[in-house]
Amino acid sequence: xxxxxxIKGLNKAYGSQRVLRDLTLDYEPGKIIGxxxxxxxxxxxxxxxxxxxINDYTGEVLIDGHKPDIHTKSITAYLPERTYLADWMRPVDxxxxxxxxxxxxxxxxxxxxxxxxxxxxxxxxxxxxxxxxEKLQLLLVVCRNAKLYVLDEPLGGVDPAAxxxxxxxxxxxxxxxxxxxxxxxxxxxxxxxxxxxxxIGRGRVLRNDKVENxxxxxxxxxxxxxxxxxxxxxxx
Amino acid sequence: xxxxxxxxxxxxxxxSVANIYLAAGITIVIMMLSYVVKIKxxxxxxxxxxxxxxxxxxxxxxxxVITNFYKTLYGQQGYLSFTLPVKSGxxxxxxxxxxxxxxxxxxxxxxxxxxxxxxxxxxxxxxxxMTALKTMMQIFAGMPNADVIRKILIxxxxxxxxxxxxxxxxxxxALTLANxxxxxxxxxxxxxxxxxxVFIVMQILVGTLTxxxxxxxxxxxxxxxxxxxxxxxxxxxxxxxxxxxFIFEVFxxxxxxxxxxxLMKNKINVK
Lengths: 236, 271
What we know:
Shape of chain B: flat
Structural class of chain A: alpha/beta
CATH topology of chain A: Rossmann fold
Oligomer: heterodimer
Helix content of chain A: 25-40%
């Protein structure tokens, strides 16, 4: 079976600043991977490369055996850390838009979830609160039956109750056979769901460990994270 | 997928230009009503407003074309556009086609408004529009036959289409190049510099090519002939249309679109 994510010798720089250095990773399908690291460590850059938003890198990046292309985009559901929907759109327009382009998008489920999420079908996105916009974007992602889900800081900037809600939605709605890459620096809330913990610092892989029952060996992920990044202010 | 992209592109861009066309529509209704109820000051005011709106409509459409391309690809919406399972070429084609249609529509509406206002004003001062048109036809009567004039008009329209395509290609290329690694740190201002640099280079090349390889179409009473002389004013006084620049610009626009598609596929960093 082809690896869902296979990266060999990946390098990326912004001008003279090297953000990713010789990254090599390989993940089989069906795993939940926690992409962990402090702010500015290269998590979002790696995600942008995987989703096809950044193309000028060196090294080899394969998703389901393909370089980022139409195939990889059709099997990847991406939740960016920012609002990407047009101001003029309403939830009903966003659902139609996703259904137009993604064969694996479940329109009926999305329409039903609008009610569950208490989102008005015809309210313009620009008049929605940030929380409502985030809910809508989460809904659009979890209503796909994708092979790979890439979630960039889905818990960032939300209160603890919202974090529980978001995690609940993700865990209940994503197919069990799919792979999930979640980037976060809020380890405590999510460490129980990971199969793999990937820690990146200064653009390098610092740890890439299997997780069992929320632990890497005898330590919790949070403890390992604190150990690895205790000097974060120096390394980033 | 191209059809779906075009459909959604129309939906998206319509929101940017709809208001100005709505304003033009309302002004036309006010103008017609004032004509019916014969309130002269309202009709004068609405006529002036309509002429202003017609010019503003073109400007707003051009600005909308530029901002829409930037916002939907290199702004936050780029996160959606560039992760769609479509080729960069398809994204570009959809945006270019829709922009072309909007610009063309704005030109047509502006021309229609000016012609409409002329006819309206002519009636107000008691002139017979039909007589004026007949006079124009008499002037044309001394020129090549109607078939040749029709051909010249078609070629002229194609040249206008090419000019629109060239403008779109220059804008798209400038905005895309400005979002590559080399220019991104300079910000949006680099797009303006790139646009004017490309524009000036194109003008220099057109000027040089026109003097080195002058090709023009000459309308005579017998039909259209191709001329390779340098003089734009034919000694016989025939209607002459230079096409060297037009041919070059068609190829240049195609080249710019190809370069833009390449950059979008291989060199873009969505911020």
